[in-house]
Write a structure and sequence with these properties.
The protein is an all-beta fold and 261 residues long. 2% of the residues lie in helices and 45% in strands. It has one helix and 16 strands.
Length: 261
Amino acid sequence: MITAVVRSADGAVLAAAEHPEEVWLSVDRVYQPGDTVLISGAKHLKVQMDQSVPAGEVFLPDGTMTWTVPAGEHRLAYAPGAFEAPRHIILARLVPESELSVSRVLSRNPADLRGDTDFFPHCTANVETRNEACFCARSVIDGIRLNTFHGEWPFQSWGIGAREDAWCRLDLGRTVIAERMALTLRADFPHDAYWVSGHVVLSDGSDLAFPLRKTADRQWIDLGSRRIRWLRLERMVKSNDPSAFPALTQWEVFGRDILPE
């Protein structure tokens, strides 16, 4: 049984629903800081946490997902007015095995949050420009590839604050078969610089070097259908542009789940 429960910061239940395969929940409330959505009942779900946020596939290792409604400065990475309406819709549906075995984007998770999470995919980094929400690591898996500007939604990105040792890690939460990945660099030229090369380290010990070029288009890197749980971008080499600001708009990993025999 899939359940969805919304609680206030003091633990009061604000709304709840359950269904064997697909939960629809309407929440009549102007969200307040500390409001939390708890979803449980399966490990593979497709969720939409609000009508202002796209749906995405998540993996719940323990069968439970705890999602704190973004508040304050965190909302700058979302559409204007997100989470501010007096009524909200939350959706969670079971992902069948027939969908898990198909090659698809494994990395996209518009519901990802900054900090520790109990659901995946999840992005973290050692630096985020000025610690601002619109430059945080979760931006690169939110599914939005608009990259000809920088700053607030829909141009959020992972900004590195001109750090040469910047890295970004993508955790998938379970072992998958990773076939290839695509990087979409932020392309607000001439404000932006770009990376000419980089490395991706995989959880199986692989270390793959790749070139990059100055373009707003996706750039593809073959991952060799390796079995991995996480990936880390590192040793990114900046171009000789006068700008000190290369940034990443989207990081997509394509592959499929490994089903039990």
